[in-house]
Specification:
DM13 domain-containing protein, DM13_domain, transmembrane helix, about 180 residues, membrane, five-stranded antiparallel beta sheet, alpha+beta
Length: about 180
């Protein structure tokens, strides 16, 4: 009996090691703790720096809204509004207002040329065509601003997606309507 137990012990240790590695990889990949973590961001509407104002003006001009949209849910319940704004100095920002979505791994804010489709049909369309990543999602709740590079032609992009780059799926999206 001593010999059989001696042979099984290395197999048991190997099995435990394999399970531990798989659990570690699964935790790293899925980041399940984010389901219980909320990140609220409350950024003010961007404004032109005082040095960029024309001389003699009383204050900064209000940002001009170029396009708007309402977020719809895809893989996760997502609500809020999207605005593309232009400041007096010509810089442009994508602004998420009142965002409420799930937290998740590797979430990005994308400008895309894909049509926004409701339901499962819309979950995976945003990486099929052109898209520009404006960066990591700062928080899964609140209002936040993302600079749009000067070389991006907004006429080429018709939607915004909260995109999970790890699993290639949209958490939510908004069709952009010119203002």
């Amino acid at each position: 009996m001593g010999r059989e137990g001696g042979r099984r012990r290395p197999l048991l240790i190997a099995a435990v090691a394999v399970v531990a590695v798989l659990v570690g990889v699964g935790l790293y990949w899925f980041e399940p703790w984010k389901l219980w973590q909320e990140q609220t961001v409350s950024e003010a509407l961007p404004s032109t720096a005082p040095s960029a104002r024309p001389s003699g003006s009383a204050g900064p001009a209000a940002p001009r809204t170029l396009a708007t949209g309402d977020l719809i849910s895809h893989e996760h319940t997502t609500t809020g509004k999207v605005r593309i704004i232009q400041l007096q100095d010509g810089s442009r920002f994508l602004r998420l207002e009142g965002l409420d979505t799930s937290n998740g791994p590797d979430l990005r804010v994308w400008l895309t040329d894909a049509p926004v489709k409701e339901g499962v049909a819309g979950w995976r369309v945003f990486d099929d065509g052109r898209h520009v990543s404006l960066g990591e999602l700062k928080g899964n709740r609140g209002s936040q601003n993302y600079p749009i590079p000067a070389d991006v032609n907004l006429a080429d992009y018709t939607s915004v997606s909260i995109w999970c780059d790890r699993f290639d799926v949209s958490f939510g999206a908004a069709a952009l309507t010119p203002a």
